[in-house]
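Researcher: For the record, we're logging two predictions in this thread. I'll number them. Prediction 1 follows.
Model: Prediction 1, sequence and structure:
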Amino acid sequence: MPEGHTVHRIANEFNELFGGKVLRVDSPQGRFSDSRLVDGQRLLRASAVGKQMFLHFGDDLILRIHLGIYGKWQFHKGSPPVVVGQVRARFTVPGVTAELRGPTVCEVIDSEALATVYQRLGPDPLNPDEQGLEYTRFASRLRKSATSIGLLLMNQAVISGIGNVYRAEILFRARINPHTPGKQLKPRQIKEIWDDAVELLRIGVIQGVMITRDEFLDEDPGKSERNFVYKREGQVCRNCKKKIILEVAAGRKLYWCPGCQR
């Protein structure tokens, strides 16, 4: 499943390619019946919260898209291509076409429904506010919970946009055992988790890949060198030389180092 940085990158691309323009929208697959509601409408802006993207055509005309596990986007320059496969929705302006396949959610909602979605979602590190209210929401939810921090970071109602990779890497960088209950974390640890999420996801938006090793934050060293613990089970920790552990927690793979994350 795409993590938050990917969805924000797509929203940025939509703003660049389609922002302020009248879109032709259709559903070659036929499963997006609401395409007629936004067809011929001007896109005001695209935004993202966590793993969900929103195309704003008006105060009460918003297209909500959640890629889920199987959803993906493809962008094409030039004339609209011949439809291949199951295209749920296609967005076209002269010279550019975006095709959406396999999303979990693709629906038109109004402002009231949008507010309901926002209320369900936790704060997004890629949408920080100057007043620090988003961090305060995040910290409050951790302090009140007996659930492990490893599970809390995967809960989109606690923090939006974090997935398996960032969960593993942020906790390693903070030297926090993923089984530590949220309410047992020290204030400085909670702040470090949030600040690191803000920085690493920002870099992910810029680079287009999830890089978490400080020496490579400005350039991609290649897939095998990007991370500390993710998908490195059984290998020696880059820091303490103990072997990385792989567990299954709530049905998801959890990577961590028993030497560094005590």
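Researcher: Logged. Prediction 2.
Model: Prediction 2, sequence and structure:
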Amino acid sequence: MPEKMPIKALEQQLNDIVSIKLKDQRIFRGRLTRCDMYMNLTLADAEELEEEEIKAKYGQVLIRGNNILWIQIPE
């Protein structure tokens, strides 16, 4: 049964690949390595996508929770 609290659902996805869309419309994909109660996230092997194509590779990135529009987690 899926978790109803967003932070608990994210914690269950640690080390999985997630996609994150920011309020400025950028999309990042990477392995979720950390999350906190403010929804700040750390991704490893992060890539910035543009129209499903890799635009840039960043390695490790920190994304502030207040910049996140949505998070796509694997099913």
